[in-house]
Design a protein that fits this description.
It is built from six helices and no strands. The longest helix has 32 residues.
Length: 151
């Protein structure tokens, strides 16, 4: 396998003591890193829509989901799971599977937001943060076992 930018960064002298741990858990560490970035993209887009533009929280969540989905697909495909799919048809199928998996977790998240915000009248950002933890775990499982599984 070709060294990617993260492999090269881990060769830096200051990071070299952590290289064995990185190599052993590379996929999980990169998923957490890019999952964290996708989380920030999602939360930022949600906050901008819901708080900045006054859009309904459930609609704001869907807008944020679409933006985060596109970001997550590219980063998961390229760096986390190192997809070898090259042909347009294969990439399209992979993107559709990825989107379908994320749609399942979106429905779970929407349900959590509806219950937490509309029924329990909790702070929307706190409910959103809690729901994101559930979503990140579910997305990893779906991506690992279904979308980017090694053949």
């Amino acid at each position: 396998m070709e060294n990617d930018i993260f492999d090269r960064i881990m060769e830096w002298k200051i990071l070299s003591p952590f290289r064995p741990l990185y190599l052993k858990h590379k996929e999980m560490l990169l998923y957490l890193f890019f999952g964290g970035l996708a989380f920030l993209v999602n939360i930022g887009a949600y906050a901008l829509c819901a708080r900045g533009f006054g859009i309904n929280p459930l609609l704001s969540n869907i807008i944020a989901w679409v933006i985060a989905l596109l970001f997550a697909y590219v980063t998961n495909r390229v760096w986390v799971f190192d997809s070898k799919v090259k042909r347009a048809k294969g990439v399209l199928i992979e993107l559709l599977l990825f989107s379908a998996g994320r749609l399942v977790t979106l429905l779970i998240e929407e349900g959590m937001l509806w219950v937490g915000i509309d029924l329990m009248h909790s702070n929307d950002m706190i409910v959103k943060l809690i729901a994101q933890i559930v979503v990140i775990i579910g997305n990893y499982i779906i991506s690992k076992l279904i979308v980017f599984r090694k053949k």
